[in-house]
Write a structure and sequence with these properties.
The chain is mostly helical and 100 residues long. Helices cover 56% and strands 0% of the residues. The chain is built from seven helices and no strands.
Length: 100
């Protein structure tokens, strides 16, 4: 008996940006069905990836990017920059209050 592949836990970060994928697909003039056929996987999987219900593996992301004739980085999820990860300090808040 084969095991089913594990699914991405709900709320886990995606490897791709669904909005970027939709934009690139539409700019290429392709339907989800046509893009799925070019990539060699099911239309259902393509719909799930584009809707953000499933995460595209790095391999699948490269396949999609090749089919859309765009660099994979365009479709990758954007990571927050370092300043976005640093919580504001008391000093930063004090400077903002003084500037007001």
């Amino acid at each position: 008996m084969s095991e089913r592949p594990t699914r991405r836990p709900r709320g886990a970060p995606l490897h791709h940006d669904p909005a970027a994928l939709t934009y690139a697909r539409e700019k290429a003039g392709l339907t989800k069905r046509a893009l799925a056929a070019r990539c060699g996987f099911s239309e259902q999987l393509m719909c799930d990836i584009e809707a953000g219900r499933r995460s595209a593996t790095p391999t699948k992301l490269r396949q999609i990017a090749a089919a859309l004739n765009c660099p994979p980085v365009v479709l990758e999820a954007k990571r927050p920059s370092v300043p976005d990860l640093v919580p504001p300090t008391a000093e930063t808040g004090e400077e903002e209050r003084q500037a007001s």
